[in-house]
């Protein structure tokens, strides 16, 4: 007789409460870590003299103690910085006859801006009392300028953006042959617009 | 038809079944468990990160050295002052110690990751560049050249 009885059901009514407690515990104890930022590579620590740079190939950005931004001698707004940096890098100011003429540049080819993207150097200087967010914003704009140019060339050559290629490259779910191909493409674009950002030591005169 | 309607209305509404409620809550729970990361450091400094748009995702956690910079949060003791401080490994360190602690963190990593180690600088929006430059110089001295200014996603004009 006993074996024919229906086994008693466990009351699952409090299951929801238990789960809610756990959920609230995790909500309170954890925080969504942000794991993104601006990657930079610093120059190694040695005092080697830097090779001579022509003045036209150097784009100097300085931020002073009151967070004003100066680019190539003019005080400018942060919002117009990216445009100026793009104009500088993409200038391609060498003459058409010259060997290193930049045939993919779409700049205005002015005489006082860079000769070729591979020669263009952007320098970012800050002072002791410059606030960090402004510095990050300037870094962001310069990197943004490079990304915009790289995207343009990437769209022209491979029909996808540089960021998309970069994203796929660091994605785990691709085969090695795909990875090789993506790497090749990244290299091609990086040669066209190499990122040259100088961060000289803060000097207080 | 009429008969049917009459029969329905005479009965009271059946109660809503809550049997699937635990399942829904469990799904939520697992969702939060997977997307969140446990904080492995107790923050001793204020840490509101600046915003940027051109961010790249950081590498995996095992090759990151974190450095926090910011004004100390005065949890009940006001003698820490207002000057920004550097936090590594759950304690305040001075600028001169940054190199040592960074190298120590580096030796804790597996050997094959040491070459690709990145220093993530998590500095508060209230910090001035002086301390950041000092920090960067110390990192250059110990040849840790890959750095990351860790930021939140957002328009840069919010920084001004």
TrEMBL record, chain A:
Q: Which residues cross the membrane?
A: 12-32
Q: Which GO terms describe its molecular function?
A: transmembrane transporter activity
Keyword set includes Chloroplast? no
Query: Which is a Gene Ontology cellular component entry for this protein?
Result: plasma membrane
Q: Which UniProt keywords apply?
A: Cell membrane, Membrane, Protein transport, Transmembrane, Transmembrane helix, Transport
What InterPro entries does the annotation carry? Answer: ExbD
Q: Where in the cell is it found?
A: Cell membrane
Family under the similarity heading: Belongs to the ExbD/TolR family.
Protein name according to UniProt: Biopolymer transport protein ExbD/TolR
Q: What organism is the protein native to?
A: Maribacter arcticus
UniProtKB/TrEMBL annotation, chain B:
Q: Name one GO molecular function term.
A: transmembrane transporter activity
InterPro entries to which the protein is assigned, alphabetical:
ExbD
Q: Name one Pfam family in it.
A: ExbD
Report membrane topology.
Single-pass membrane protein; Single-pass type II membrane protein
Per UniProt, subcellular location reads as:
Cell membrane
> Which GO CC annotations does the UniProt entry carry?
plasma membrane
A GO biological process of this protein is: protein transport
Q: Which UniProt keywords apply?
A: Cell membrane, Membrane, Protein transport, Transmembrane, Transmembrane helix, Transport
Coiled-coil zones = none
Membrane-crossing ranges are: 21-38
Q: Where this protein primarily resides, as one coarse class?
A: membrane
Does this entry carry the keyword Transmembrane helix?
Answer: yes
Q: Which family does it belong to?
A: Belongs to the ExbD/TolR family.
The entry's protein name is: Biopolymer transport protein ExbD
Q: Which organism is it from?
A: Maribacter arcticus
């Amino acid at each position: 007789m006993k074996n024919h009885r229906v086994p008693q059901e466990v009351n699952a009514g409090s299951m929801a409460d238990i789960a809610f407690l756990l959920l609230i515990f995790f909500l309170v104890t954890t925080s969504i870590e942000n794991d993104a930022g601006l990657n930079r590579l610093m120059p190694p620590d040695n005092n080697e003299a830097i090779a001579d740079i022509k003045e036209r190939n150097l784009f100097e950005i300085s931020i002073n103690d009151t967070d004003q931004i100066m680019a190539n001698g003019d005080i400018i707004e942060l919002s117009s910085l990216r445009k100026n940096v793009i104009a500088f890098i993409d200038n391609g100011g060498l003459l058409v006859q010259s060997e290193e003429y930049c045939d993919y540049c779409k700049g205005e080819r002015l005489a006082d801006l860079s000769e070729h993207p591979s020669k263009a150097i952007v320098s970012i200087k800050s002072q002791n009392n410059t606030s960090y967010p402004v510095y990050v914003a300037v870094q962001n704009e310069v990197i943004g300028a490079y990304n915009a140019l790289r995207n343009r060339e990437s769209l022209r050559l491979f029909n996808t953006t540089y960021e998309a290629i970069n994203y796929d490259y660091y994605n785990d779910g691709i085969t090695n042959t795909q990875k090789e191909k993506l790497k090749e493409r990244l290299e091609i674009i990086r040669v066209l617009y190499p990122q040259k950002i100088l961060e000289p030591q803060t000097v207080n005169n | 038809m009429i008969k049917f309607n009459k029969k329905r209305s005479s009965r009271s509404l059946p109660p809503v079944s809550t049997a699937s409620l635990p399942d829904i809550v469990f799904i939520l729970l697992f969702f939060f468990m997977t997307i969140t990361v446990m904080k492995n450091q107790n923050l001793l400094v204020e840490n509101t990160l600046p915003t940027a748009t051109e961010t790249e995702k950081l590498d995996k956690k095992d090759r990151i050295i974190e450095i926090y910079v910011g004004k100390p949060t005065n949890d009940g003791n006001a003698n820490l002052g207002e000057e920004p401080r550097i936090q590594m490994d759950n304690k305040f360190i001075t600028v001169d110690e940054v190199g040592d602690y960074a190298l120590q963190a580096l030796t804790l990593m597996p050997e094959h990751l040491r070459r690709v180690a990145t220093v993530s600088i998590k500095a508060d929006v209230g910090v001035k560049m002086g301390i950041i430059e000092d920090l960067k110089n110390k990192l250059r001295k110990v040849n840790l050249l890959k750095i990351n200014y860790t930021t939140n996603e957002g328009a840069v004009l919010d920084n001004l």
